[in-house]
Amino acid sequence: MTSVNIQKIRQTIARNKLSDKIFSYIGLASMLIGVGILVVLLVDLFFDGLPRLNWQFLTSFPSSDPLEAGIFAAWVGSIIVILVTALAAIPVGIAAGIYLEEYAAKNWFTDVIEINVANLAGIPSIIYGLLGLGLFVYGLQLDRSVLSAGLTLALLVLPVIIVATREAIRAIPGSIREAAYACGASKWQTVWDHVLPYSFSTILTGIIIALARAFGETAPLIVVGAVAFIAFLPTGLFDPYTVLPIQMFNWTDRPQEEFQIAAAAAGFVLVFMTLAMNGVAIYIRYRLRKNIKW
């Protein structure tokens, strides 16, 4: 190899290293911008709502008096609705992802299903609200209840969970399946005992993203009948309800400055609850990954 060729190789390596370094700096800057915006938002909401961030605010029902109004019914309603959403969407989404990736025949019909599932993840949430209104409220006669809200949000996040499940399962090496089959395992035993344990931490990431989106949704719940003012807690799945985004929307529409402060405080609580929910899920994912032995 001549010295000229060696020099060209060195120049190419140097350019590639420079490109890698530039890309890493761009990625770092993008991450810092995203985190910085979140921090600024939290700080702004915190200081705007600081006068109302107290125990009384968290444990009081809404009121026409802005100094006595609280978010007790709203944050409890948010938790109940998101639990219904999780119970409805997670098992169905994971099962659908497993079927499409492991069991479904690879033909034009499954291709159409896959394309439609991917497209459904990008449909505006208001469309799901209209679907929930027609299907659950009027079609199944579930009325404007917690169950209708939870099932509507489940439809909203279902495509995200299905896509995340499929991608997680697809990333598992085929050698793991082949080793299980070689030991005499059935298709289901291979999926349940080997594929799912290795892929579940990645599936959990998609579930976190999906539920975080559902937790802050407003438009679908307005359509299916979330109550803006409610002075009691829902005691069953067929009771009326409200959620934090609806409560914030109601207060920001009021002219009094005290209601604007209450809306900022509710916004901080909403973001904090979302981050706390994500934090718990991320910790569970970390523990699952730590216990996996490749």
Number of domains: 2
- Percent helix, as a range, is over 70%
CATH class of the largest domain: Mainly Alpha
Annotation, overall tally of beta strands: 0
Mean pLDDT across all amino acids: 83
For the CA atoms, what is the radius of gyration?
24 Å
Shape estimate: globular
Tell me about this structure:
The protein is mainly alpha-helical and 294 residues long. It folds into two domains: 49 residues; 237 residues, MetI-like (MetI-like fold, Orthogonal Bundle). The protein is built from eleven helices and no strands. α1 packs across α11, α3 crosses α10 and α8 packs antiparallel against α11. The protein starts with a helix and ends with a helix.
Features:
single chain, 294 residues, mainly alpha, MetI-like fold, 76% helix, globular
Short structural description:
The protein is mostly helical. Helix content is 76%, strand content 0%. It has two domains: 49 residues; 237 residues, MetI-like fold.
Topology (SSEs and partners):
Blueprint: H1 3-49, H2 55-59, H3 72-103, H4 108-120, H5 125-139, H6 146-170, H7 174-182, H8 187-215, H9 219-223, H10 244-252, H11 257-291
